[in-house]
TrEMBL record:
Catalysis: reaction(s): Hydrolysis of terminal non-reducing alpha-L-arabinofuranoside residues in alpha-L-arabinosides
Enzyme class: hydrolase
Biological processes, Gene Ontology terms: L-arabinose metabolic process
Record lineage: Eukaryota, Viridiplantae, Streptophyta, Embryophyta, Tracheophyta
Domain Alpha-L-arabinofuranosidase C-terminal positions: 366-532
Record's signal peptide: 1-25
Protein name: non-reducing end alpha-L-arabinofuranosidase
Assigned keywords, A-Z: Hydrolase, Signal
SMART domains, A to Z: Alpha-L-AF_C
Family: Belongs to the glycosyl hydrolase 51 family.
Amino acid sequence: MGSKDAFFCTFCSLLLFCFSSKCLSSELDLPQTALVEVDASWEVSRKIPDTLFGLFFEEINHAGAGGIWAELVSNRSNSQFDKHSSWKLKNSVALRMEILCENCPAGGVGIYNPGFWGMNIEEGKTYNLVMYIRSLESVELTASLTCSDGMQNLASVSIQEIDPSNWTKIEMQLLAQGTCRTSRLELTSMKRGVIWFDQVSLMPSDTYKGHGFRKELIYMLLELRPQFLRFPGISHHDEVDTIIIEPFVKDVLDSLEFARGSAESTWGSVRSAMGHPERFPLKYVAIGNEDCGKEFYRGNYLKFYDAIRKAYPDIQMISNCDGSSRPLDHPADLYDFHVYTSAANLFIMKNKFDRTSRIGPKVFVSEYAVNEQRDAGKGSLLASLAEAAFLTGLEKNSDVVQMASYAPLFVNDNDSTWNPDAIVFNSWQQYGTPSYWVQTYFRESSGSVIHPITISSRYSDSLAASAITWQDSEDIFLRVKIVNFGPNAVNLTISSRGLQDGVNTAKSTVVPVESELPNAAEVMEAVLPPFSFTSFDLALDQYSKLVAEM
């Protein structure tokens, strides 16, 4: 595991498994036929918002601590020191580490931290240990990385005769001499006395750009080419009466000043002192999360809305109330829409926003997924097909749908609080579920051009499709994506008209055939397997000039 190709092969295997099991009952059925017509004429095309597809990150399933954050020590601040604490006793000691022995055994006594279900320590890599210690006497201390049974010592470094009468920051590097996927950090001593520890941190030296994130997980996010990042704000479950909401409003304004204020402002100066003088590009604020039905929501919403609008008139504010079927009764730039449902229902919802008013706030589909367990499990092809169909509908309705993100993003395989998720990982492995890989086929959609598309088939209720023109650093492509959500194969003909230039067949994933259809500039033919997602790219010669002018 670990390579992109390996993950893609996993996705292919899932696809083939569906064909060989779920679809056996249809092998004797005759294939259906379908005609997909794309109108690539410039007059009827429309630019998709640059922000259409992005990411939603929340601390669930150990997505952050024990996940994307590369910190190896669990509970490094000792704030959870109880029977479930990650700090474990080794011999007769406590975390207020009192060494009681006069003649301690070889190797000393002390404490250990197993991290998040074991630390992944790899031979040849360096790990940075930072901690604060305090003692009334001089200290002799050894920090070691050992395998989970404590028998294999992978790295060790010692501190001799230091005098930390005040809190003293200790920084050390440990070079691993072996590999163990379930390692632990040990802090031991052979000298009688008391040592206090705080903020014990162990980080790999090779994090993403030195920022403290696991590189392999960040790379998987970058593969999606996200155009925005959504993350929680203050609280999800609490509710406050509007008459006492003002302190919370001030707290939010202070937080916004920390992110957006100048380096000379009260909170902006704090940000600058922390090493980030540049302002963060915070452009949106969602007021609440799934709170529309709560008693005080509308009153509180207006308090936040008015205060933020006055201080930051450019920030776009997002309401929790669904405006897709009826107008909102309060001001908003966007409204939040969440959907967790069955595969069949999400497939039907590809048309959800077809009739939504184009006047008023835009739509932010900030959380979507197939989560019904019989359809999704821990990630399935069926779920991803329904999600792909739903996304084609968002593309086609992107004049009103401004942004969309899948949820949840991550799950540590040792803590599956919520299933399914896009990316599954443990301390040293990771893979994308089919829902993740489907999103990679929509990563070029943001900022591209959407074209009208029609499907003619008596089987059309089981099909979903979209057509975009997108551009990489060298070429321009017409991409047609099609979901076959039914048990029958489909003999497909794709007809495109309105293209201004010729086709570069060498760079296309499908080759046009001679057409007998009227007014069809290019015709492509293919067979769609049952329960499948297919993407076609037709490389165009000069169309990029027109895209650049849009």
